Amino acid sequence: MKREFSELSNCVIGCAIEVHKVLGPGLLESTYQHCLAHELDLRGVRYKTEHPLPVEYKDTRLDCGYRIDLLVEDCIILELKSVNALKGIHEAQLLTYMRLANIQQGFLINFNVRLLKEGLKSFVL
Predict the structure, then answer these.
(1) N-terminal to C-terminal alpha carbon distance within the chain
(2) How many Cβ atoms from other residues are within 10 Å of residue 123's Cβ?
(3) What is the number of other CB atoms lying within 10 angstroms of the CB of residue 85?
(4) How far apart are the C-alpha atoms of 87 and 65, rounded to whole Å?
(5) Any idea what the Cα angle at residue 97 is, between residues 121 and 87, rounded to 5°?
(6) DSSP string, 95-114
(7) Looking only at Cα atoms, what is the longest distance across the chain?
(8) pTM
(9) How many CA atoms lie within 13 A of 95 on its CB side?
(10) Which domain holds residue 106?
(11) Contact call for residues 36 and 78 (beta carbons, < 8 A)
(12) Number of domain units in the chain
């Protein structure tokens, strides 16, 4: 089932909010990733975890070890964090991943916050 773009974005945000509501802040990023994947499963959303992201360099694809935390329906990148504060380097990382993967939308989600809306940033190329 193909979802409308904004409907999918709202669903992803709803899943992240649910995970944060149940778990709260203070856990490892990997815990949030597993739980968010489970929540996406519960809602019937397709995704890939730790999706490889090669780098194109001078007409050669190189596996440099980059991985997308969650690639949702092949059209939204989720970069997950559990840090004291999001920094510019986190935004740059997501934007670079979006450019390399040719994906137009991404969410940077920091679960280590009191309210998830304080740790959620949306990006569109």
Answers:
(1) 25
(2) 15
(3) 11
(4) 22
(5) 45
(6) HHHHHHHT-SEEEEEE-SSS
(7) 46
(8) 0.92
(9) 10
(10) 5-124
(11) yes
(12) 1
